[in-house]
Give the backbone structure.
Amino acid sequence: MSDLFASTELEEDLPRPLADRLRPKCLEDIVGQEHLTAPDKPLGKMLAKKSVSSMILWGPPGCGKTTIARILSQNSGLHYEQISAIFSGVADLKKIFEAARIRRKTGQMTLLFVDEIHRFNKAQQDAFLPVVEDGTIILIGATTENPSFELNAALLSRAQVYVLKRLDEDALERLLLHAETDLGPLPLQDEARTMLKTIADGDGRYLLSLAEKVFSEADGETVSVKELMKRFNRRAPLYDKNDEGHYNLMSALHKSVRGSDPDAALYWFTRMLAGGEDPLFLARRLTRMASEDIGLADPQALPLCMAAWQTYERLGSPEGELALVEALIYLATAPKSNAAYKAYKSALWAAKETGSLMPPAHILNAPTKLMKEIGYGGGYEYDHDTEHGFSGQNYFPDDMPRKHFYKPPERGFEREINKRLDYWAKLRREKKNS
């Protein structure tokens, strides 16, 4: 194995954080991103040809975005510039672009790394277009947010998007092993070592910071899980109620319910609560699931969700959350049907397509003499007075063929509904043939 995480070329007499001291100097030394950095993968091939193109690196904090940009620059003979979109504006960009134009005349290209590029507004992002287009700069933007939502389509069309992964258990352990080549053995019990990686939550930079603190504060003692948790609060999971993480977890929750997996549904539900999601938003979404994914396969699902919603409003947190959990488990274990949802969509389409067709005259009320004379209400059969409580009359417009919108599956309560529909269809056929 190569000299993993060799020191950077900064002044050795100045104290530097462990994460900086161990920063990789070649792509092969970056852990957890082999799908991009291996010699036969996109960035590996790019570096082998020393032909770096503009790109967006999308991934969670501490996964190696900045390191990749530096390595590509250092090993391709490119001048390296780095800015943060949080602290920079168009004026700063103009200075960088002008210096890059001058540098280009001398034969040296500029790689500009923009951290948190999604923080630039749309107008600021537009400033990159001409200099990327004419090759004045090679842009590497780093973002923790979905580029599809946060970056201009024009900018995305000029840069390849590469997705970096959250560091898994194996990658985090490799980081700890190499931290120990600098610090010495970490004074952690096995369970505490596992907990340290859990606290880091996939963030390599944060893990190295934690390891450095453990080593400096250990005082020669082996740290247990209990002691570790006293020293370090577990970091809140990455979750922003207004950003992509919110929609990703909501999608996972909804699909787990639809897939009749109560355990997975409970996991995503509690992940959202732990991230600070409003329980009332979850109550609303559960109610939507009841009507959209269960429907009449279990008619009790919807009132149960409404009761859980009301219970939470009255009890609050944390007691009220149990009512939402009960509703969640009920939905996940209920028979599923989207027949009502599909029937509504089909009927809505038909209503738009058929315009202003009148109801058939026999089902119109006739409160005036004139209306009776022109046929309103004529021939109407009162269903309750018929032999089977079903007249079988036509209720669609006269100029519209009969449609079949609602098609319940043979699941749950809709089995019984199917029997009723089949029975009425039989009576309707008999009336037609009589």
In short: Confidence is low (pLDDT under 50) at residues 1-10. The radius of gyration is 32 Å. The chain has 21 helices and five strands. The first strand starts at residue 55 and ends at 58.
